[in-house]
Amino acid sequence: MSIDRASGEYYSSSYAKEQVEFMTKKGLYMYSGNILDYMSGIDLSCNRLTGQIPPEIGNLSELHSLNLSRNSLTGFIPSSFSNLKQIESLDLSNNNLSGKIPVQLMELNSLEVFNVSFNNMSGGIPYKAQFATFDESSYMQNPFLCGPPLHKNCSKSDSSPTVPNASGSEEEGGLVDKHGFISLSSASPLATFSLWTFFYSCPCSEEPGG
Question: Is the overall model pTM greater than 0.70, yes or no?
Answer without folding.
Answer: no
